[in-house]
Each structure stands twice: as C-alpha cells, then as structure tokens.
Design a protein that fits this description.
The chain is an alpha/beta fold. It has 17 helices and eleven strands. It has three domains: about 190 residues, Crotonobetainyl-coa:carnitine coa-transferase, domain 1 (Rossmann fold, 3-Layer(aba) Sandwich); about 80 residues, 2-Layer Sandwich (formyl-coa transferase, domain 3); about 40 residues, no CATH class.
Length: about 400
C-alpha cells in the first residue's frame, strides 16, 4: 500500500504518474481486500491507483528493462517499495537508474530499513503496528493488544515518502541535483508517536492500560494478535494448510485460505489461538517465520526503544534542552543522501524568537517594541545554552556517492 498510496498523492496534485507493473498486473489487482472483488478492478487496487497511467513491462526481459530505462530518462521521480535487494536484482536500483538520468529523485520504501538486522523481514502493516509499541497504548488492562482499525503503518509511510519526494524535488529545483531517498515503515510509525514516546522517554510515564478499554473486519483469518504461553505475537495472512501443519491443527487440512479464510474466520481464530497458547512467543516466531509465515513480536515502548533495528536506524535523537534538560525523542523517518535532516534547536519558549524573526523580516527595533508593548506580539527572552549538537540522521550504509549536478528536468 505504501508505494501506491504515495504515488497516488503525487498524481492527485497533478503529477503524471506512470505505474510500471508486471504484464500480468501487480499482485494487489488479484488480492481483494475485504473480499470486494469488483468487476475488472477490485476495490483494493482501485482505492490506491487513481490518477495514474499503467505501463505493463516484464523487467526480467532485456527489452522490458530497456523500455523502463527510456521512461526513466525523462522522469523526475522513481519510486519503488520492493524488499531490499530486489531492485538491484532487476537492475532498477538507484545507481543503475542514476546512470541513465543523473538528476532522478529515487525514493525507496522498505519495511525496516535498507540494511540492518531486520532488513529481510516482511514489511507488513500489522507486524509493524505490533512492533511499534502502539498496540499497548489502547485497550483494557489484561486484554489482548488491539491493532488499529486502519492500515496505519502503510498510510503514514506513504505520507512520509510523499514528503520525501517533495523535499528532494525542491532541492533539485534549486541545485539541479537528484538524490537517493529512503523511507521505512518502522521509523515512520515510530516517529508518528511523537507525543506518546516523548511522554515515555522524557516524562518517564510508563504504558499502563486502565481496567476499561479506551480507544478489521476486511482481512481473512488468521489476522490479529494472539496470546502465547509467555506473551503475544502478531500473525498475518498465513496459508491455512501450512499453518495447520506447523501448529498441529488438523481441522485446517483442505481449507482454502481465500474461501474458508473468510467464511470461517471466527473458527480459524479460535483454533489458532488455542494452539498458540501452548508454546512461547519465541518458539512460534522462529518456527512459523522460518516457514515463510508472517509473524512478529508485540513490543512495548521499552522493547522498541532498546530494539537493535531502531538503534541501527538512528530512529531516536538526543540533545540537551535549555529548560527541559536531556531529551531523547523520535527523530526523522527518512534519510536523504544529499540533504539529511538535522536538529538545529529544541522546542522554543513562547515568543523566544519574536524579535529575531521580525527583525529578519525587516521590522525596525522601534516597531517591534511597539508591537510588544501593545500586546499584538509577545516575546520570551532566549535561555542561554550550548549549541545543539549535530543530530543529523545517519546516512544509510548503502548510500550512493554524490551525483554530478544535472539540468533540472521539467515536471
């Protein structure tokens, strides 16, 4: 969803979006969300692909790949959300396409990052929701963690990629340089929880759900969070025959995931839940994951903050604030090879920069003081502090060498 949604946003704003898909059509044309198959185009595909023109190419063929390269020569942006490594195998990685169009803005979307310990894990919405800590911020104490009723990780990652495209295009407009932009679902969903995680990391308030709840019917079973003997796991889109074999549930033998997965959802959930309670989460993650079933842990904020992929990505930033002391908070959900985000100052006090900004805008000292005196403006004296340390997001290990400046390609 993330890549198509981000490209759709661009199309909605007037971009000429060319969707390059396999000659048989991209997979989501054949996977009807909610069972809404449609006539020729199912609702899932329909919802994510307006304002686009489709070009069907076989990128594994020489001619198909060359046709794509010709499209890239006149393009402004190339956006893909393959798993890490797939684009390179198809010859559509950044270095390959930059050789064709040096000013291309190349955006790569992944589940967990271009590299790191979770590089090859499936970047699926439910699994990312579970890992982000968000599930333990809602629901009733003692109840199973509750996923959001939206494809939250996909949607916020799409918005983040959209932002990355715009920022990189602005940079190219000013300098002529294209660049490599990476976005991943884990960082996007973590930084979305700016307030909650800052309350945890800065305010030292733990996640404690109350006795009463505070807060998808369109996905086939099994799809949800399940209790194990020592915790919870998130399980998504498991093939019923394979799942039944691995959890020793003979009832699933002969069931069709796309038929009984809809018509017997409650039964599938109950039988799966009963089996998964028999063994610990680590056992199921290792056993089912090794068989290609999408399963992952449900983390709380402490596990998220301490997670090795979060550490590898540099998802959190730390700095000293003049009034709040040492601060650790979610940082930047994207990485740019040319214009990385940086921390320049912490959150300002009320009117801390009123005088400074008004002066830069051309106001005289007298007029500024008149505004302050009348109450039309307010200012708080700046608090002296050491310079904020450089907290730029770390460059990805696979970041390409800088591209030579090239003429801007008209949109």
């Amino acid at each position: 969803m993330a890549g198509p949604f981000a490209a759709q946003r661009l199309g909605d704003l007037g971009a000429d979006v060319i969707k390059v898909e396999p000659t048989s059509g991209e997979w989501q044309r054949h996977a009807a969300a909610g069972g809404a198959a449609g006539n020729e185009i199912n609702v899932s595909f329909l919802s994510l692909n307006r304002n686009k023109r489709s070009v069907a190419l076989d990128l594994k063929s020489t001619d198909g790949a060359e046709a794509l390269r010709e499209l890239v020569r006149g393009a402004d942006v190339f956006l893909q959300n393959y798993r890490p490594g797939v684009a390179a195998r198809l010859g559509v990685d950044y270095e390959s396409l930059r050789a064709v169009n040096p000013s291309i803005v190349y955006v790569s979307i992944s589940g967990y990052g271009e590299d790191g310990p979770y590089r090859d894990r499936p970047g699926q919405d439910l699994l990312l929701q579970a890992m982000s800590g968000a599930m333990l911020s809602a629901g009733r104490h003692g109840d199973e963690p509750s996923p959001a009723g939206q494809y939250l990780a996909d949607a916020i990652t799409a918005s983040t990629a959209f932002e990355g495209v715009l920022a990189a295009l602005l940079h190219r407009e000013r300098t002529g340089e294209g660049q490599f932009v990476t976005v991943n679902m884990l960082d996007a969903l973590t930084t979305l929880q700016m307030q909650e995680l800052s309350v945890f990391t800065v305010g030292k308030k733990t996640q404690e759900r109350s006795a009463e709840p505070h807060a998808h019917v369109y996905i086939r079973a099994p799809y949800g969070v399940f209790a194990t003997s020592d915790g919870y796991v998130a399980l998504a889109f498991a093939d019923l025959h394979e799942l039944g074999r691995l959890i020793d549930e003979p009832a699933f033998e002969g069931w069709n995931s796309e038929v009984e997965g809809w018509t017997r959802r409650d039964e599938i959930h109950a039988k799966t839940a009963a089996k998964l309670r028999e063994k610990p989460a680590g056992y199921w993650i290792e056993t089912l994951g090794a068989a290609g079933i999408w399963i992952g842990p449900v983390l709380g904020y402490q596990e998220l903050v301490d997670d090795p992929q979060i550490a590898h990505n540099g998802t959190f930033i730390e700095y000293d604030h003049p009034t709040e002391g040492h601060v650790k908070t979610p940082g930047f959900p994207y990485k740019f090879s040319k214009t990385p985000p940086r921390l320049y100052r912490g959150a300002p006090l009320v009117g801390e920069h009123t005088r400074e900004v008004l002066a830069e805008a051309g106001f005289s000292g007298e007029s500024i003081e008149a505004l302050l005196g009348s109450g039309a403006a307010a200012a708080t004296p700046a608090v002296a502090t050491d310079a904020v340390p450089d907290a730029a997001s770390p460059s990805p290990a696979t970041a390409p060498a800088p591209a030579e400046p090239a003429p801007v390609v008209p949109a």
